[in-house]
Amino acid sequence: MAGAKPILFTLCIVLFSLRMASAQADSCTNHTFSGDRAFDSCTELPVLGAHLHWTYNPATTSLHVAYRAPQSPSGWIAWAINPTGTGMVGSQAIVAFQNSDGTMNTYTTPIDSYSPSMAAKELSFTVSNVTAEYEGGEMAIFAVVGPLENGTTSGVNQVWQAGDSVVGGVPQVHATSGDNVKSMGTIDFVSK
Fold first, then answer.
1. Is the pLDDT of residue 7 over 80?
2. N or C, where is the chain less crowded by C-beta within 10 Å?
3. Closest C-alpha to 115, from 140, 136, 89
C-alpha cells in the first residue's frame, strides 16, 4: 500500500499538467473573435499573456493577423515585425488603445529608437484594414500585413508590447524590466 502513494501522487501531477496544457491550448485555438473573424493558426506568446492568430495567403503573400493581450481600458498594446533585426528598435508596429469615449484608436508607427515618438506613420511594408477592439479585459489588433517580400514568412522577428497609460492620445513608456523586455521572438507564418 505504501508503494501506491507515490504512484498516485505522480498520476495526479501528470493529470494536472495535461489539464493545464489543454487549458492553454484552448485559450489560443478555441478563442472566438467578434464579427466571425477566424484564423488558421495561433500561438500563445511566452510573455504578457499575449496570443497571435494569423492566416497566411500564399496567392497574395499576405497575412491576416490578430494580436490580443490582456489590458485595462487605460492601457495600450502593440505588435510589430522587425525586418532589420531583433528587438524593439527597427520594429514596424501596430498600436492600439481605447479613447476616453470608449472607441478604439489603432495605427501604425515605426519604432526608430528607445524613445520613439509613437506618432502615426507608414511602415516599411504595407499594412491595411487596421482595426482594434476591447472586450472582456483584452485588447485585440486586427490587420492585413503584406504583400510580404523576400521570404519574410519564416524566421520573422516579432516584438509585442503593453503599457499602462495613454496621455493625450500618446501611449506612454512601457515597463523596462521583467516580461516587457522579454517580449520578442521569431515566428514562421507558413509552417505553423
1. no
2. N
3. 89
